[in-house]
Every structure is written in C-alpha cells, then in structure tokens.
UniProtKB/TrEMBL annotation:
Keywords: Hydrolase
Signal peptide: none
The organism of origin for this protein: Amycolatopsis echigonensis
Keyword presence, Hydrolase: yes
Phylogenetic lineage: Bacteria, Bacillati, Actinomycetota, Actinomycetes, Pseudonocardiales
Taxonomy, superkingdom: Bacteria
Molecular function in Gene Ontology: hydrolase activity
Segments of this protein annotated with the region Disordered: 184-203, 569-593
InterPro entries documented for this protein: AB_hydrolase_fold, DUF1023
Residue ranges annotated for the DUF1023 domain, each copy included: 316-490
Protein's UniProt name: Alpha/beta hydrolase family protein
Length: 593
C-alpha cells in the first residue's frame, strides 16, 4: 500500500504531460500505420515473393494495430490517473487539516497520534465532537490510500498489458479503427466500489476520494449505489434517487399487472375459505400503495427546493426522506421522524408542508435573531411505522418498541450520514432531531448512540426507552419536550414499557434535564402564537409549539417559551381561615391564625 507521503508526492501534471505525448505518438502511429496498410497488395504482383510480402505485411500491420490499441488504452489510463490523483491528495490534505484542528497528527501509514495527549481541550470543543472527528480522519485517510492503491494497481495493470500486447485484436480494417475499438472497449482505470458494510464516515471518505469525473460516472451508471448511502452529500443522494424513480415505477407497474392477473384468475378458482382471494387482493393493494407512494414523492419534489434523500421500495411499504432546502449548505438541519400510522402515500404530503413551514419559520428566526445560517428540514419516513391493523401483532404493534428499534438503527445512520457529509465538506452543522408520537420513541433510541445531534425535541411522546437522562447522548440542556393539554398519548404507557416519561407531570417522569416547552397561547420573539390541544397539532402553522421547535432548530433555544408546571405557578397569599396550599405530595397546612 502506498504511504501518505508517497501519494502526496505523486505528480498528476507530469502524468498529464506524458499522456499528451502518448496521444501525439499514437496519432503518428495511426497515420503511418494506415498509410502502410495501403501499400499492399501491389497491382499485378503475383507469385511466391508476392505471397511472402503479403504475409509479412499482414504480420506487421497486425503488430501496428496492437501497438495502436495499447497506446490508446495507455493514453486513456494516464489521463484518468492524472484526473483522479488530485482528488486523493485533496482528501489527504483535508484530513490533515481536520486533524490539526482537533489536535491530531496523521502518520505516514495513516495512523493518528494525539498531539494534545495529557492536555486540556479548548473550552469550545466537545469531547464527543473530537471523537467523531478522530474517526472521520481515520476513515478519510484510509479511504484515500485505498483509492490511491486502486489507481496505482489499475495503471500498473494497463501498462503491463499494453507491453504484452494484450489490447486489440489486430483484425481491424484500419489502425484508427483498432485504436478506437480498444479505447471504447476497455475502461482503463476502474472506479473503486464503495467499501463493504461501510459506516457513514467511510462512505463520505470514499466519495471524497473520487474525482469529479469519477463521481459523474457513478451517478450515471450506478445511482443504485448512491441514493441511500449515508454519508454522501444530499445533492448526490437526491440526484441518484430521482434518477431511480422511473425504473422503480416501471418495476412496480409490472408487479401490479402480474398481481391483477392473479386476482382475475382467482375469481374462477374454487376458494370456499376466501383465503386465496384475500391474499391476492392484499398483494395487489400493497403494490397499489407503493405506486401511490411514488406519486406522493413526485408531488413533493414538484414543489421545488426539495431533496429526495432516501428511496426504498423494498419491504411492505415504501420508505422515503424528503428534505426542504439544501442539507449540504445549511448550517441548521432538522430531521423529523413521525410515528404511528405514518406512511409515504398517506402522510408525506402533509408532513412535507409542515416541514416547509417549519423551515421558513426557523429561517426567519435564524436571520433575525440568530447567526443568519441557512436552514433545511427533512421528513424522514425511513422505517416502517406501526399500523392500526397490527396492534395485536407483538412484532409490529405500537405497544412494542420492536419497529422503533429497527427504525432507530436506520435513523442513527441517517443522522450520522448528515454529519459525515458536513465534516467532509467542512460545512458547520447544527443538527436537531424532532420526534412525534411513536417517532419520538424511535428518535429516543437512536439518540442513545453517538450522533452529531446538538438539540432534540420530542412531542406527543409515549416514552424514549430510557431510564435516565444520561442515556441520551444529547448535550446537557438541549433536550426538549412538548405536550398539548388534550393529547392522551404521553399517558398511555402506564406500565413504563417505554422507559421513564420525558414529562415531569406524569408519574415516573423525573427527567429534570428534559425541558418542557409550552404549547399554550404565548408571545415569542416574533409575535403572538396560538395554543394547540390535540396529538396531531404540534406542527400547526403559527402555533406556540411550532415556534418553540423553530427556535431550537434555528440555534436559539433561549427564545423558546417554557412550559410552567403547576407547582411552579405563583401562589397567592392564603386567605385567613383557608388551608395553606401544599406542594405536590404533601398535606395541606392548617390555616393561619
């Protein structure tokens, strides 16, 4: 494997000059070779000598064809190498700069040493951020060296094969045809595939190590590699997923035609139990709902200013994530995870509008009262949420955390992917996780793992699957909750199957560091906002609950309106003769005399 210092010394400009010289020599070979090809046969020359001359001519022409074919492929490979090397070197330089920022030094073999060992970290540097940066640096250097080895091995192979005359058939009519056929029929340098079972930071490092030309080729030829790959830029994922939509729709339409044929055939089959028809109709309905999901995605994307960050048609239902704004250039990114009964076909339209409103509200607060950073929001329906029909199914029930745990693993990858892409580009990131209903349970489980989330808001939450606040890897003072006065969901988990409640007003809810925000009528920094009462109203436009979320997303949680607990409300002086009101859990005191 090449070392860091060796790759940094590679001279792409020199390779480019050699390639240009090779192209000139190739052209001379083509012109001279084709002229040579025209000298035989000579009119009127026959006999043994003519036959021997013809054989020698054909042999030489064969060799010229092979030489031209090899020269053509070598020229192509040199040009590809000269284009690919700067991206690898830039990736190494970026990793070294990130290492210097966080107090590390990159060794020649890609290993890291801690230059700040035994020293206190700067006050504005969080240990969690430094640990993530350390892993990102390791992955960046490892992937850069992996891509460098791929370039080196491929170019070596091309040069060896050309020297051995392995390119071209020698049977082409002209030397020009031989060179053209060899160039079009041989890839030259191949692009490295994504690392297997890669983490988001490894994916980000792989993508950063590719040249712009290589990235464009993969977007054209392998969008299926890219669209759902956590760690890649949102613009890349969206372009890939949008490109995949026609093929996904065509495949579903073929399945729909076949499923409809089964339904039609089943009508003439003796089926006293009705099970055959029920199964056939269930399959047809599932495909129908997937096609309607693609319709919903198309409608959302048609609004403009959207990014299709996840597209997965496997399983029982389509999974998708749609961003409002640009998650690559936005400093403030919010990822919203919905819950019970949410599906792409039925829910994306409304949630996309909610996230559009929240993005605008957050942007307004960031521009007027914050750091003026750009804001992007994401509707993440990247898991199969529990449905009403599955309430009694222990594996899929809303009363179980089974689907939440599956979803949390995917959400964790998505959140870390946003962070890894920002790290790779050097773009600052303030990431907020939003979770509603069962989606707050999914979010709570995801936040028990290392993510770049700096703030989180859960609303209408049945629980977070935690026993104490320290289970959540969110900075202290940056975990928030909301609960509307007529929302029954936070009280449903009376057995605490989903852990300690995030609300202090519920028995067992003692998580003092989860700050409850108001959902009542209130006046915020940008004016008055209205109360919300029900489970589905938290994201209502111009509501206090939406304002509070927008304040958190904009990086100004200090602007949010706090919920005042009953025991925190001021108590008027007791009237003589009346009992003194008692704090919660205590008996009233005798009236004053």
């Amino acid at each position: 494997m090449a070392s860091v210092s060796e790759v940094k010394r590679w001279n792409a400009a020199a390779l480019n000059e050699i390639a240009a010289t090779m192209q000139q020599r190739e052209q001379v070979l083509i012109n001279s070779g084709d002229d040579f090809g025209k000298i035989m046969p000579v009119d009127g020359w026959t006999g043994g000598a003519a036959d021997d001359a013809g054989s020698a001519h054909r042999l030489l022409h064969f060799r010229i064809d092979k030489m031209a074919a090899g020269a053509s492929v070598v020229h192509k490979a040199l040009m590809q190498a000269s284009d690919a090397i700067p991206a690898v070197q830039n990736a190494i330089h970026a990793a070294e700069n990130l290492a210097e920022k966080y107090g590390f030094k990159v060794g020649d073999g890609g290993q890291l040493t801690d230059a700040w060992a035994g020293k206190a970290l700067p006050q504005d540097m969080h240990p969690e951020d430094r640990a993530r940066a350390q892993q990102q640096i390791i992955d960046d250097v490892a992937q850069a060296l992996r891509t460098a080895d791929d370039i080196d091995n491929d170019l070596t192979s091309v040069l060896r094969r050309a020297a051995q005359g392995e390119f071209g058939t020698g049977d082409e009519a002209t030397v020009a045809a031989a060179a053209a056929a060899a160039e079009s029929g041989n890839p030259g340098l191949t692009l490295p595939e994504p690392p297997p079972n890669a983490s988001p930071s490894q994916n980000a490092a792989w993508w950063a190590s590719l040249s712009s030309a290589g990235q464009s080729i993969l977007l054209r030829d392998h969008p299926d590699w890219l669209g759902n790959r956590d760690g890649l830029p949102g613009a890349v994922r969206s372009q890939a997923n949008v490109a995949r939509l026609p093929a996904e729709r065509a495949a579903l339409e073929r399945l729909h035609t076949a499923a409809q044929a089964v339904v039609d055939q089943t009508k003439s089959v003796y089926d006293p139990s009705g099970n055959l028809m029920a199964n056939a109709l269930r399959n047809l309905d599932q495909i129908d709902r997937k096609l309607r999901s693609l319709d919903a995605i198309d409608a959302a994307m048609a609004h403009g200013g959207r990014q299709l960050l996840t597209l997965d048609t496997s399983g029982e239902r389509v999974k998708a994530a749609v961003g409002v704004g640009n998650i690559d250039t936005a400093e403030h990114v919010a990822v919203f995870t919905p819950g019970f009964t949410s599906t792409v076909d039925r829910s994306l339209h409304g949630y996309d509008q909610d996230m559009n409103n929240l993005q605008q509200h957050s942007q307004n607060l960031a521009s007027r009262y914050g750091d003026h950073g750009q804001v992007a929001t994401v509707t993440w329906i990247g898991y199969e949420t529990p449905q009403t029909a599955d309430v009694l199914n222990p594996d899929k029930s809303v009363a179980s955390d089974g689907l939440a745990k599956i979803g949390a693993q995917k959400l964790d990858g998505f959140l870390n992917g946003v962070g890894a892409a920002h790290n790779a580009s050097g773009q600052p990131l303030h990431l907020t996780a939003l979770g509603h209903s069962y989606g707050s349970l999914t979010t709570g489980i995801a936040l028990q793992h290392d993510t770049p989330v700096k703030d989180a808001v859960v609303f209408g939450s049945p629980g977070l699957d935690i026993s104490n606040r320290n289970d959540l890897k969110v900075p202290e003072g940056h975990m928030f909750s909301e609960w509307s006065d007529q929302d029954p969901v936070p009280r449903l988990d009376i057995a605490h199957n989903f852990g300690t409640s995030p609300y202090q007003g519920i028995s067992g809810g003692v998580l003092n560091d989860i700050q409850q925000l108001s959902t009542g009528d209130a006046t915020g920094a940008d004016g008055p906002h209205h109360i919300t009462h029900e489970h589905g109203q938290y994201l209502d436009e111009n509501s206090t609950s939406q304002y509070n979320m927008a304040s958190v997303v904009a990086g100004r949680p200090d602007l949010a309106v706090r919920h005042v607990q009953p025991w925190e409300m001021p108590v008027p002086p007791p009237v003589p003769g009346d009992p003194i009101p008692a704090p919660p859990g205590r008996d009233p005191q005798p009236p004053p005399r």
